[in-house]
Amino acid sequence: MEAGSRRRIVFWRHGRTDWNAAGRFQGQTDIPLNKEGHRQAVQAARRLASLGPSAIVSSDLARTRSTAEALASVTGLPVAIDPDLRETNAGQWQGHTFDAIRTMDPHGLHLWEEGDVHTAAGGAETRLDVAARFHRGVDRALGAVPADGTLVVVSHGGAIRVGLAHLLGLPHTLWGALSGLSNCSWSILEERRPAADGTLRWRLGEHNAGTLPAPVAVVEG
Description:
The protein is of the alpha/beta class. It has 7 helices and 6 strands; from the N terminus they run βααβαβαααβαββ. A 6-stranded mixed β-sheet has the order 3-2-4-1-5-6, with helices on both faces.
């Protein structure tokens, strides 16, 4: 990180659900965490608490709210709710496995899996749509974070991936270079010096992490 303390954003994906386990496209269907998902959230929350978060904001869907509450219970912080941090609205694809979607809409799924940012998932939202609203939600939450603070954004795999690409300023053709996040894993953006026009700029510090870096012990001899 550049000299001086700067803000960080931790993007944390929710814990496991039964639809995750079944390989179903959840989208904005409000599926709760299962027993394993709750366990993952509690375990990850203990690690993330050590980063000293300043604020927590979550998508309004049950699986993210439950995940966020696990961190809130450790840190004592309130959880702000923002629907702009929801997962992609996948329209008619929601609730179906990818094999079923491939039968229903082979051309649309092919374009979407190839990373086309203009293809609407299930006829609903494009990746550009999701990235734009996700960015708005992050900007609103950053307003409550001090200059050296850490914001935890609890959201969804697809939304986080396109949100990261958008915030990093990656060309659309490179959005697919970022992998998705595993359940209850996180990625961290570190604030850089603003651009000449005052635009916030970020660098990727960690991606799809599940543990925190250990201090390096220097031993002479």
